[in-house]
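Q: Here's a chain of 505 amino acids. Please give me its 3D structure as tokens.
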Amino acid sequence: MENQPVRICDTILRDAHQSLLATRMRTDDMLPIAEKLEQAGFWSVEMWGGATFDSAMRFLNEDPWERIRRLKVVMPNTPFQMLLRGQNVVGYKHYPDDVLERFVVKAHENGIDVFRIFDALNDVRNMKKAMEFVKREGAIAEMSICYTISPVHNVDTFVEMAHVLEDMGADTICIKDMAGLLSPYVAYELIGRLKTEVQAPIHLHTHYTSGMAMASVLKAVEAGVDIVDTAISALAMVTSQPPTESLVRILQESSRDTGLDLNLLAEISNYFTEVRKKYAAFESGMKGVDVRVLQFQIPGGMLSNLMSQLREQGAEDRYAEVLEEVPRVREELGFPPLVTPSSQIVGTQATLNVVLGERYKVIPAEIKNYVRGYYGRSPAPIDPDIRQKAIGDEDPIDCRPADLIPPAFEEARAEIGDLAESEEDVLSSALFPQVARPFLERRKQGGGAREALVAAIAAKVIQEHDRRPSAAVEKAGISASPWKVAWRPQRGRWGGLIDGAGGTR
């Protein structure tokens, strides 16, 4: 292992702008640099999932499915990676198995190669179906462990979970450190244990929030980690990932040299430096590390959300009190890792406790459902007094929550009606009905011009490539690369990329 190159997953097209720019980066700002990203030679590029799905429709008036297809035209050989919230899919609640299954099928069909699957409570029951569907489609199932610190979380518990995930069939295992809590020497111990005790490749994801990320990555490299997440420097650090170029340069002097071209990476960074200026209004205001995360374990995105909630209540001056309240609520709720959606659940309750001047005077439905077990098993028992306040004498469920959710895909199809032009549209509506409907209505108002616009955009992308065109594209009169898009009129969609042998990818 010590002579094996470290593989890089770059997060510039997903987590980097989600962490720093409120998930506002448009596809049109990704496409001009996509060819350079294709040339870079990354193990994967994380470019979808997480908050990007609903944000595309909610804020950008974009079809999230179309982002995959448009980028795949230019990046046919780079594995595309997404963040899949297990039974939560890309939403904030559990969805039925039929919606999850169809989502995985369509995501892979549209171009997703690596599915990073996690559960906010590390409840493997909520990850199992997603893994089964991903593996059935022939994609990579990267099963994730949400890293956190508590009296019930330690290296032993994470290694034990890794064994369970490998036995389930994990293709790779990811340590997902969403708040930047993983310290360098714990990283060395944890990764070292995993490399000794499990066979699956180990992938490390961390955030720079606490300032420890690069040191932790380097100790993980020393321990034998196979793949690490970084972000092109223009959108690195603060609450994002450590910078790609820095790690590449550091490892050039080691036996684990990544082999990536620093000059090419610099070109990519220069491009995103200019793009970032367009989204300055969406930046959080954080300029450097925030060591409060080590005390309160609050991810950067949650910090900005708390401030927004307090601002709406005219209680910004109580921010410090809320920060102090979050760990108390987390302990009472059984030490859930603070990641979507548990971070939002805990943060909202903490805010209410402070603003209302009485703890648990108001208990949101999400807290009640959490206590009922509708999100899965809490890592530790929930405080009995809090359980009584939330649900009284009601017995929590003990089964996998999704077992209680009836199928919903066909109901969503009927509900959205002729606004849906594809199964992808139905899925968008099933996941976010209140967001998808107005988006699809706006699209319909454009009439038949939409398909023409998509075709024109794709043709323009193709024309910008100075490569030998394939025979089919030459026949169409378009100068293009050997890869091209197949137009499928029956679906009104751009389909899979077709290679010279006529196969689809």
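Q: Can you summarize the key feature?
A: Residues 408-445 form one domain.
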